[in-house]
Amino acid sequence: KLIKTLIEMDYEFAIIRHDQDLLANFKTQLEKHNQLTDKKLSEREFKKVLNHLAKGSIFDKAHTLRERFSMERDNGDILYLRFLNTEHWCQNEYQVTHQMRMEGKYHNRYDVTLLINGLPLVQIELKKRGMELKQAFHQINRYQRHSFIAAHVLFQYVQIFAISNGVNT
C-alpha cells in the first residue's frame, strides 16, 4: 500500500536489486537532474563524483547534499553538479524501490527505499502487524553497521529511517 500511494504521488517505481543497479540508477538520475542528457558523465567523471561523495562525516554528507560540486570534465570544461534542488524541491527526481539486496558483512534486504535524484535518502523498515517495533529498530541499526558502507557510500546519505508495524510508526 505504501508503494502504491507513493506512485500515486508521482514517485517513479525503480527496479533496483543490488548495489550495481543503485550506482547505475544514481548516474542516470544525476545526469537527468543536471540536464546532462547530451553530455553524459564518463566513467572517469562518475568516479570523481563518487570520490567526492565518499568524503566526510554524516554531518558533512548532509551539507554535501545541499551544495554544488564543481569538477573538471575529461575535456577540461568545468561542470557544476547539484545533488538536490533545495529551492525548487518539485524539480527533484523522486523514486521508490523495494527489496533491494546489499552485501556488507552480511546479506541484507531493505524493505522500502526512497531516492531523490538517485540518492537513497529515506529507509523504511516494515514489520507485520502486531510485531514489536524494537525488532525493526534493531534491524535498521544492523543495516547501518554492516551494509550501509556498501554501494560506494550512497547509503551513508540516508537522512531518515522510518519503522512501522502497520499499527505504530
SSE map:
Elements lengths: L1 H7 L3 E2 L5 H15 L9 H11 L4 H9 L1 E5 L5 E5 L11 E10 L3 E10 L2 E8 L6 H14 L13 E5 L5
Parallel strand pairs: 1-4, 6-7
Antiparallel strand pairs: 2-3, 4-5, 5-6
Encode the helix/strand succession as letters.
Answer: HEHHHEEEEEHE
Question: How do the strands line up in the largest sheet?
Answer: 1-4-5-6-7
Strand content: 25-35%
Mean pLDDT: 87
Write structural notes for this entry:
With 169 residues, the chain is α/β, with parallel strands linked by helices. 33% of the residues lie in helices and 27% in strands. The protein contains five helices and seven strands; from the N terminus they run H-E-H-H-H-E-E-E-E-E-H-E. A five-stranded mixed sheet has the order 1-4-5-6-7, sandwiched between helices. Strands 2-3 form a two-stranded antiparallel ribbon. Strand 2 and strand 3 form a beta hairpin.
Report a brief summary of the structure.
This protein has 169 residues and is an alpha/beta fold.
Features:
two-stranded antiparallel sheet; alpha/beta; 7 strands; five-stranded mixed sheet; 169 residues
